Amino acid sequence: MTTKALALFSGGLDSILACRVMALQGIEVLAVKFVSPFFDRHLLGSDYCQKIDEKYEINVQLVDISDDYIQLLRSPAHGFGKHFNPCLDCKIFMMSRAREMMQAAGASFLISGEVVGQRPMSQRRDALRLVERDSGCDGILLRPLCAKKLEPTNAELAGLVDREELYDINGRSRSGQIALAKEFGVTDYPTPAGGCMLTDPVVGQRIKLFYAEHENISASDIQHITVGRQFQLPGGGWLALGHKESENILMEGNVQPQDVQLRLEDRPGPLAVLRFETSKDDIEIAASLVARYGKKDSNGNPCPGRVRCIGDGDDYLIDASPIAEDRIAPMRR
Does residue 149 surpass a pLDDT of 80? Predict the structure, then answer.
């Protein structure tokens, strides 16, 4: 019977290599990529899994953990990093969820592409050990790229995996991974990048503020406050205003029944979506922002416009003047 492993798959080079190392030992690898409103949720409904299979011969599935992850941010046991990023609790949460999936997948152990010392908060040796312990993954979590720097796992001790064919990569340098990729013929792979918006100083702070002011938060709310220009209006409304057409499309697809949509009638301009609107004043301010960011006149100046407002069964027009520049900064988020 073929031995199976369940891989935590980020889509980066390390996780690609970890899966490849196991496959070369005859292990059948099922990779799982978790997505949430804070990272990679746009992949849902795409051909991502097919592309990964075609490019790297890795069988990956997407698992949406949005609801539970949103709750995790309320009070992560190990606190936050530099911004609003709960890196240790994030790792623990994902490892725990992967462990719960093992039986259904028929997997004997878990693998990840983590490397000792690569990340200062979540991949220190003590942090890796903490994640194993608190996620209930003692003995079942194998990290193929740095396994020889760690204690043998159950899979190695039982002979399911040949420890001699594993690696001892460590530290911040990626030269070991790049050399291994070349050896495996993996040439087209993503460059390292911070894919989690919670680590971004601006967006992370915005989400933190949003959490402080709202008790019940949905995945749709997170998308609302992270796409386009963002404004918090005096009455409590939160306005998203598209920079470009691709953002307008994302925002339009995320509109909820209680939202108010605003768009210029008489010239090109952005879509704006107002959520948590509590006053007509907020709608008028939103309309003036739409006029401000619409197409300018021949002299390059903002100009008045007719703004259509649609929401909660209403459909009406507002004759809006562009908002004064000195009023914008206090509302910008």
Answer: yes
Token pair 């992850």 is found at 69
User: 121 pLDDT exceeds 90?
Assistant: no
| Residue that is written with structure tokens 């697809």 in the block | 253
Provide Rg for the chain, Cα atoms. Answer: 24
Q: Which two tokens stand for residue 194?
A: 């911070």
Strand pairing class (28-35; 4-8)? parallel
* Integer Cα distance of 326 and 140 in angstroms: 58
Q: Is the pLDDT of residue 119 over 90?
A: no
- E strand intervals along 277-320: 305-311, 314-320
CA torsion 73-77-78-82 (nearest 10°) is: 20
b/e sequence 76-97, b meaning 16+ C-beta within 10 Å: bebebbebbbbbbbbbbbbbeb
pLDDT in tens, 254-289: 999 999 999 999 899 999 999 997 789 999 999 999
Token reading at 11:
């889509």
Residue 98 has which token pair?
A: 């992967």
